[in-house]
Write a structure and sequence with these properties.
single chain; about 160 residues; alpha+beta; seven-stranded mixed β-sheet
Length: about 160
């Protein structure tokens, strides 16, 4: 297996990944631990609805979340989603692939910088996320604690210009 540094990271649309991959990923209790908005059990209908919601963002805003592949293997999803007037960068990896987070985040930030019209991105992290040093190294600054859909998050902002 290649090291994290040697791993090729690519993006595909969520519709290009078997729905069972997303279902299994989002049903993992280790994922749910860091996703306060993830409520209830996931089934094929929930996974299908999730993909449809993420595709709707692409149609509405021209950007959205991708399936993330490491050397061709599905490792999670993430991307840029419009939240009000801000672009939020989200990333949800399979637990065995958490170590790819910094590499994937840098690639998503590079994409945002190259995409015209995005001057900053935000990150909403749940209180369960304790290791935030990678965000600091990226240049993101803590802004405030916010409530989103009834759940608490730490909000960070990264200026891209």
């Amino acid at each position: 297996m290649p090291s994290v540094l040697e791993t090729e990271i690519t993006f595909a649309r969520l519709t290009e990944v078997p729905i069972t991959e997303i279902l299994n990923h989002m049903s993992d209790p280790r994922v749910a631990e860091h996703m306060p908005l993830l409520k209830g059990a996931w089934d094929i209908d929930a996974a299908t609805n999730f993909v449809a919601q993420k595709e709707a963002c692409w149609h509405r805003d021209g950007l959205g979340h991708w399936a993330i592949l490491s050397s061709g293997r599905y490792v999670g999803w993430g991307g840029l989603q419009k939240e009000g007037k801000e672009w939020d960068l989200g990333l949800v990896l399979k637990p065995d692939d958490f170590g790819l987070g910094p590499k994937i985040t840098r690639k998503l930030v590079e994409f945002a910088r190259a995409h015209g019209g995005i001057s900053q991105v935000t990150f909403l992290l749940p209180p369960t996320r304790k290791n935030l040093a990678a965000l600091g190294r990226l240049g993101a600054k803590f802004i405030e604690e916010v409530e989103y859909d009834g759940a608490a998050f730490k909000k960070f902002r990264l200026e891209l210009t």
